[in-house]
Structures are given as structure tokens and as C-alpha cells.
Amino acid sequence: MMDFIFEPWPWYVGGPLIALTLFLYFYSGKNFGISTNFETICTISGAGKVSEYFRKDWKERDFALLFVVGLVIGGFISSNFLIPDAAVELNPKTVQELQEIGFSNVAESYFPAEIFSAESAFSLKGFIILVLSGFCVGFGTRYAGGCTSGHAITGLSSLQLPSLLAVIGFFIGGIIAAWFIIPNLL
Fold first, then answer.
1. pLDDT tens per residue across span 158-185
2. Residue 167 CA: distances (Å) to CA of 16, 32, 162, 174
3. Domain-embedded: residue 89
4. Is 52 inside any structural domain?
5. Half-sphere exposure of 9 (CA within 13 A, CB side)
6. Which of 173, 177, 157 is nearest to 23 (CA)?
7. Average per-residue pLDDT in the chain?
8. In a shared domain, residues 136 and 182
9. Is 92 domain-assigned?
10. pTM tops 0.70
């Protein structure tokens, strides 16, 4: 049974589970997405004292906070207990290219030390990258009217043109980051 959990789930299992989740959200009159939880956390933290935008009744979105808690717990469990082998199978050319741009332990772990280590996060360069990345994610989420999961899953499944445009923008931004920005930061 544990082998089933360790392996990637096929599309015909994951897809219907996502569809079922969306159906339950739509049926209950709720929207799926993560970005509204940032607003809710800011509201709970008292940001309404500073900005009119955050003067909302956070209890209307308390169901979504449970989803975020589940994401954090699930991420912790999967990264600490459900990775059977830390080695990652990568194409040798990919390994070579990643080593050329500064990754030292390529294919030895899912989480490269150059990005995910405490030393990296608490260095001046790492701190600046985290702050700028957080600002870009927050600004982009607010500007696009939602996050990647909200637009790509909920928005596209309900055939919203703004979500299609946002998802296209997310992919273009990801390609620019992967090909031009990240290689120059490392």
C-alpha cells in the first residue's frame, strides 16, 4: 500500500480528485484559491487599521484557512516521510547545465541547498531574493486578481477568459525566470 503513496499518481486518479474537490467547492458556493488567504491573514493580523482594503469579515473565509493549514501539514509530511529516495533521476545534460549555473548537489536531493538551506536564506543575497520574490508574488497575485492555483484550476474550469490570460502570463513569467533570471542570480 505504501508503494502507491510513494509513486506519482496517474492523471486518472489525480484529475478526478481535483474535479471532485472543485465540485464540492462550487456546490457549497466557495471559490478555490490560495491568494485570498493572504488577505484573510492580513485581516486577522489587524491590517484593516492601516488599509480599508483589509476591513473584511475574515470569518467568511475561515474554511480556506483550514485548507492552508492542510497544505503546510501535508508538505511537511511529504517532504519528511514520503520521499523514498532523495536522489532525483535527471537527464545527464540537465545535471551538467545546472552544475554550470552553480548548483553543486544536482540530482542528490529534491531541495537544492543553494536555494533551500538556512545558510542561503539567512545570507544577504538570499534575504534580498526572498523579499523581492515575496513582493513580486504578492503584487502579481493582487494584479492578476488571484493566484496560479485559483486561475489555473478554478478559473479555467469555469471557462473564464481572464484566467486563461493570467495562466498564459504565469507560463511566460516562469519561462523568463527559469531561462534568464535564476541562472543570473546564482
1. 888 988 998 999 899 889 988 888 777 7
2. 21, 15, 9, 10
3. no
4. yes
5. 11
6. 157
7. 83
8. yes
9. no
10. no
Distance CA 121, CA 168 (A): 30
pLDDT tens digit sequence for 23-79: 888 888 877 777 778 788 888 888 889 888 888 887 877 777 888 888 899 989 887
Kindly report the three-state secondary structure assignment for every residue of 103-157.
Answer: CCCCCCCCCCHHHHCHHHHCCHHHHHHHHHHHHHHHHHHHHHCCCHHHHHHHHHH
- Judge if 75 and 25 occupy the same domain: yes
In a domain, 110, yes or no: no
In total, how many domains does the chain have? 2
Q: What sign results for the dihedral spanned by CA atoms 139, 58, 37, 164? A: negative
Do 60 and 11 lie in one domain? The reply is yes
